[in-house]
Amino acid sequence: MKIKINYFASLREEVGCSHNSLESDAMSLSTKEVWTLATGLKDFPNKILVAVNQEYVDLNASVVDGDEVAFFPPVTGG
Q: Using CA atoms, how far apart are residues 31 and 19, in angstroms rounded to an integer?
């Protein structure tokens, strides 16, 4: 499977890029597994937001071939 991954704000700086792709022989991965495989970082940032195909999901949501995953730091407003 092949998926597209986007990183926003401080996560983009932490990872060192704004986007990349991931290819895997797995039929499905969780968003946590995508983070680890794509970034090489085992620790999942605290209170991270995740979207799959532009819809917010929980951290254990399944990702399949052709999906787009986005990682966001917590959003605050004022």
A: 15
Across the strands, what pairs with 4? 21, 68
Residues of the chain with pLDDT under 50: none
Does the reported pTM lie above 0.85?
yes
Q: What share of the chain is helix, strand, coil (3-state, %, to 5)?
A: 20, 35, 45
CA proximity to 38, closest of 47, 26, 46: 26
List the domains of the chain with CATH numbers: 2-72 (3.10.20.30)
Query: Which H or E run contains 19?
Result: strand 19-23
